[in-house]
Specification:
alpha/beta; six-stranded mixed beta sheet; 20 helices
């Protein structure tokens, strides 16, 4: 493949940090590269250097002649006084952009609901992000560099963007570099990864799943001292390998190697034990939302219903995800659940033992502590907590969430966005609620820290309600999902895939473009299954896993038995080998059946 751009021995230092240390790399046609790393390690700076926006201290960056590079920054440079039309298409005549199916598909997919003549200054954060994306994507670029493109986007728009980027160029043409913490997006769009750390850039083949596998192998082979980080990666790999993503045909994601690495890793959650603990803390009655309609009054005083006839029975230990587009009414529903907003009709029953813990998007819970240090805030908490069945201190939990001993003396008002979110989550959990409501807990967190947060939540013994547009986080942390579509709450047994289909169908029936609909021709999802069929499939999968383990042990035993056969007795050797081959063939059949049953179950 032709090289489009490259960096040769690039060195860059800031006054207090080495960012890039003699980095050499290249971007070729057809590359789809995801860039990951700890916050502050230089991912965005690397993009800026490769785009020619930031000059390195040493080394050079080269571009192919006439190369067209499009860049999406974390913050837009839109003119607040301009209209949406001006911001997106500039001076392009209407007959040109309106006659282009490619441009119309982008406009319909991203900003169909944004008024064309609205001033940019009046737009919400999510609308501005979509306008900026539309502005960029209607251009014809050889290379796209996207810095956190999914920020402020809802799950349906993220799904549309992933599909657009996969189909934007022909195979082997164009190049994409994307910095994002959205692990589903990385797996869906990228075919290789760069990990930025300690001034270096390490390449990995395959998407995020393959990257996690290779990183675990690298860490294990090097016998690294970061045992905790390695265990987090192995636990995440175990979940990936047991899910639908691992059964795709991602390059270099070797299922056999993954199986060996995760053989001793238990399931991410002991659901029965967590349920038992939750019942002991909550009793059997938690929250019943019964035929509830809710809404609010607009600035003109007119009533507006955003939620109609919703019924949601929330029990002890339930782990629910709440899906819906921005503005669909998720915040309204959460306020109804907490008893903060009285319904227009219907009833909400909240159990007498319920204690809510809420992590808000704006982190208002930190406001009273802005002038205090982390250590001062933690000193007001209990000295001992039980987490995952073990006693621990607030300081140890703080370290588990990535805070160093030196950072304990940092004032809350001086913390970064990611640090504030991690501390707020910690304080929410330390308040010992038994119903935890998390609104976008993954904002501002890098992929490693997201894995640590997920691990902490895995052992939390209470009822969990999660709102997030991070598909990976949603599927990883919750067991069941509900969706708000056109003011109606509905259970989506097929998870995010079913929600996306329903949302696209609802938009289509309202006369909106179907551009964001998922690809057609897919197999029916688990949403088409009855509860009885789902339970039967679960039992079948478990049975097949036991049989696979038995056959694998038999094959290993037969292989070992060959050592005791007389090496000159060819007939005996052939007979023993035939037994091994028979066991492996049976194992292969079982694995095929397991894959088919698992795919039907997962959808």
């Amino acid at each position: 493949m032709a090289v489009l751009l490259g960096a040769d021995s690039v060195h860059l230092e800031f006054p207090t940090k080495l960012v890039l240390d003699e980095v050499t790399l290249g971007v070729a046609e057809g590359d789809r590269i995801g860039i990951v790393g700890v916050n502050g390690d230089g991912k965005s700076t690397l993009l800026s250097v490769l785009a020619g926006v930031v000059e390195p201290d040493d080394g050079r960056v080269t571009h192919r002649r006439d190369l067209q590079v499009g860049v999406l920054g974390q913050r837009d440079a839109l003119d607040d006084a301009a209209t949406v039309q001006r911001a997106v298409v500039g001076d392009l005549p209407e007959y040109e952009w309106a006659a282009s199916p490619r441009i119309r598909e982008i406009l319909d997919g991203l900003i169909a609901d944004v008024p064309w003549d609205a001033p940019v200054a009046t737009l919400s954060g999510g609308q501005r992000r979509r306008v900026d994306l539309a502005r960029l994507l209607i251009g014809t670029w050889d290379v796209l560099m996207l810095d956190e493109p999914t920020n402020h986007l809802d799950m349906r728009t993220i799904n549309w963007l992933a599909r657009h980027l996969k189909e934007r160029w022909q195979p082997g043409a164009g190049a994409l570099l994307v910095v994002t913490h959205d692990r589903w997006f990385l797996d869906e769009v990228c075919t290789s990864m760069w990990e930025v750390h300690d001034g270096q850039v390490d390449p990995f083949e395959g998407g995020y799943s393959a990257y996690i596998l290779q990183r675990v192998e690298r860490d294990r082979q090097a016998r690294v001292s970061e045992e905790r980080r390695r265990n987090m990666a192995r636990k995440e790999l175990a979940w990936l390998s047991r899910g639908a993503q691992a059964r795709s045909t991602k390059p270099k994601f070797r299922v056999d190697a993954a199986r060996d690495l995760i053989a001793d890793v238990p399931p991410v959650r002991d659901e029965l034990e967590l349920k038992r603990l939750a019942v002991s803390r909550l009793g059997k009655k938690v929250i019943d939302v019964l035929d509830v309609s809710a809404g609010y009054r607009d600035e003109a005083g007119a009533g507006k219903t955003v939620l109609s006839d919703a019924t949601w029975l929330i029990g002890p230990g339930d782990r629910f995800g709440l899906l819906g587009a921005n503005g669909a009414g998720k915040t309204t529903l959460l306020e109804v659940i907490q008893g903060k907003l009285a319904p227009l009709s219907g009833r909400v029953k909240i159990g007498s033992t319920v204690r809510f813990g809420v992590l808000s998007q704006q982190l208002e819970e930190l406001a009273p502590h802005e002038g205090e240090t982390i250590r001062e805030v933690l000193s007001t908490c209990k000295r001992v907590y039980v987490v995952d069945g073990k006693e621990t201190s607030p300081e140890k939990l703080c370290e588990r969430l990535g805070f160093t001993t030196q950072q304990m003396m940092s004032r809350i008002g001086d913390l970064s966005g990611g640090q504030r979110r991690r501390l707020s989550l910690l304080l929410t959990i330390l308040a010992e609620p038994n119903v935890l409501i998390l609104d976008e807990p993954g904002n501002d967190l890098d992929t490693d820290m997201l894995a640590i947060v997920e691990d902490l939540l895995d052992g939390w013994p209470g009822t969990l309600i999660l709102v997030t547009h991070d598909r990976f986080l949603m599927e990883r942390v919750t067991d069941h999902q509900y969706a708000l579509i056109d003011g109606r709450l509905r259970h989506v047994p097929g998870g995010v895939d079913e929600y996306l289909r329903l949302a696209a169908a609802a938009a289509s029936s309202d006369g909106a473009s179907a551009a964001a609909a998922p690809q057609q021709g897919r197999e029916p999802s688990a949403s088409a299954l009855s509860n009885a069929e789902r339970q039967r499939l679960k039992r079948e999968v478990a049975s097949l896993e036991r049989k696979m383990a038995s056959k694998r042990d038999l094959a290993d035993s037969l292989r070992e038995g060959m050592a005791s056969v007389d090496p000159t007795d060819y007939q005996a050797l052939e007979a023993q080998q035939a037994k091994v081959d028979e066991a492996l063939a049976a194992l292969d059949e079982l694995e095929t059946a397991w894959l088919e049953a698992s795919e039907r179950l997962e959808g």
